[in-house]
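Worked Example 4.2. Consider the chain below.
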Amino acid sequence: PGMRSPPPPRSLPAAAAAAAAAAAPAHRGGGGGGGGGNASLELSSRTPAPAALNPWDVMLCVSGTAIACENALVVAIICYSPALRTPMFVLVGSLATADLLAGLGLILNFVFQYVIRSETVSLLTVGFLVASFAASVSSLLAITVDRYLSLYNALTYYSERTVLCIHTMLAGAWGVSLCLGLLPVLGWNCLRDRAACSVVRPLTKSNVTLLSASFFLVFLIMLHLYVEICKIVCRHAHQIALQQHFLTASHYVATKKGVSTLAIILGTFGASWLPFAIYCVVGDPDYPSVYTYATLLPATYNSMINPIIYAYRNQEIQRSMWVLFCGCFQAKVPFRSRSPSDV
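Applying the procedure from the previous section yields the following structure tokens:
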């Protein structure tokens, strides 16, 4: 009697978050008035009671493990093979690196939820995940722009200007992604104001709205570029019908194959991320957490599908894999620098 009961320890898992939100009003009066602006610098590191294992978190961890393994192999192959140092494979390497980091982030998020439970570290993990997935989406946009330029400016594509453009795109993509990941770490989170939480704790509603709006913008740009690529292919088809040139027709077949690959990429990209992006905007934090998990898990599958579409279907990467693991094809089939439409 006469002593204030301490506030309950905070926890990032969804189950513990509900209990903490219910208990917060009872203890808010005795918590003191020192909760200032830099919430990310004043987090408690006390270890709460062990939480029950959530099957959805296990599935996210398994997904992250598969993503990390797949993309680590792609990054190793591109770094190992000098023939894969061309600008187009730099873009593929950027995508694989971003997806690799996203996979590692999912694994670390699981560890810090159930093994090393600290709000400070978990907040850093959430920022790391936001930056990684943002870099993955940005790399997909950069690849789409590169493919459009390779068809629109076919005569000047293989120039120093193109290399500079690609490096500039990647620097901008990773810079913006890093900034988005730092926002929750630097204080734009709801750990001190649970009323501002979104369906993805500890991100605020305004934060996830910004991320969703950025995704919709990227998706619309990719869709527009895909339509423009289809128009270019149709013009090529008309020219081929008039000229009946074998080599041109052969190049057109390769271009058409690249466009169909791009359609698959755009379709899987939209099917993976659109449900989660829409739910982040229309969802309410009071909704059952199963809705968040059910839309987030398919979004992670995009990082699992990317290396299959971009890397493992490519003949040069397949040859590099054989050289890396068993030394085959060392002198039989020379490497050929292909256009981005072949990737």
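The domain at 49-192+199-342 is CATH 1.20.1070.10 (Rhopdopsin 7-helix transmembrane proteins). The chain has one domain: 49-192+199-342. Compare this with Example 4.1 before moving on.
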